[in-house]
Amino acid sequence: xxxxNNLKYIKLFSILLLIYAFIGGFLFDxxxxxxxxxSIRVLYFHVPxxxxxxxxLLLSSINSFYFISRKKIIYDTKSYTYTSVAVFxxxxxxxxxxxxxxxxxxxxxxxxxxxxxxxxxxxxxxxYFLLRSSISDEIKKAKISSxxxxxxxxxxxxxxxxxxxxxxxxxxxxxGNPGFNVYDMNSQLRIVxxxxxxxxxxxxxxxxKLKLVLNVLKNDN
Length: 221
Known about the structure:
Blueprint (H helix, E strand, L loop, with lengths): L6 H21 L15 H28 L2 H32 L8 H21 L4 H29 L13 H4 L6 H31 L1
């Protein structure tokens, strides 16, 4: 199947990068930052999961646009597949963030705009699945959910990237707080963080392609 072409290379690079990220994440030296201390290592896994979610949701919205413009059901299947895997990574990201918050901020959840925006984003995409399950006609389902998916991604941008930067936030890079690039002038974090981001994104693509094959086979039966 076309979707499986070059999958072995994606799988190989993903495994290699994630092995490096896990080894580096637990064994390499990290900056001695106030409050964060050794918990800064969660950065190597928490943030890449969110990046993976956003990247997959971007692919999902692109395929929704393709369905609207080209009317081929395969694009709706791809869009649904990317969204389902993206939401999975989103829940991993929010769970790891809650654990990190407990050890740094003293609570699993705070009234932080980025946390609230992330939770709202996941709820918006959970509604996407409820919408699809409520429509039996496949073509009508694809049309309505494609439009919804495009608007959902448009809402993601202000909820995660814009509004948190306009208000006070505990997250680095928001509300006047400096980002990690300011804290980490010796690149101790970067040498593990960037490979981890790429590794998790490739993992998300790998899972999505496998799930897509299953969804296509399911629709054909």
